[in-house]
Write a structure and sequence with these properties.
By secondary structure, the protein is mainly α. The protein is built from five helices and no strands.
Length: about 120
């Protein structure tokens, strides 16, 4: 999992850029939607690779299995909620309720930050 800290930094940078990007380009701009899509792709790739590494470690270290299971559960909940967020906030909904979208993004980003911090404490 040697590339994980750099990937976490990239995810954090993207999240930090997102809210100011909303303010400067409009809540449903093409730039913002492309950034959202790129973040989603990066998170999906990162989490799949990380999940494989966690599973391999759990197989090699039986005492690590409870930590791996907790990570899988936390990650699965976040993935499910993130998918629901994307489905709930297509461009028209974002345009119609910019404040609601912003609040939803802030809440979801908080959970992403919590997951990254948890991973760094328990997995690296």
């Amino acid at each position: 999992m040697s590339g994980v800290p750099a990937e976490h930094d990239d995810l954090r940078r993207r999240m930090a850029r997102f809210l100011p990007l909303m303010d400067s380009t409009g809540h449903a701009s093409g730039v913002l939607l492309r950034e959202r899509l790129e973040f989603s792709r990066l998170f999906q790739t990162h989490s799949q690779e990380e999940q494989r590494a966690v599973a391999a470690r759990a197989a090699a270290e039986p005492g690590f299995a409870p930590t791996a299971a907790a990570h899988r559960d936390q990650l699965d909940r976040l993935r499910t909620d993130y998918s629901a967020h994307i489905a709930h906030w297509p461009p028209a909904a974002i345009r119609d309720d910019a404040a609601g979208y912003r609040a939803a993004v802030v809440s979801l980003q908080r959970r992403f930050h919590e997951l990254l911090a948890w991973e760094e404490r328990h997995l690296l």
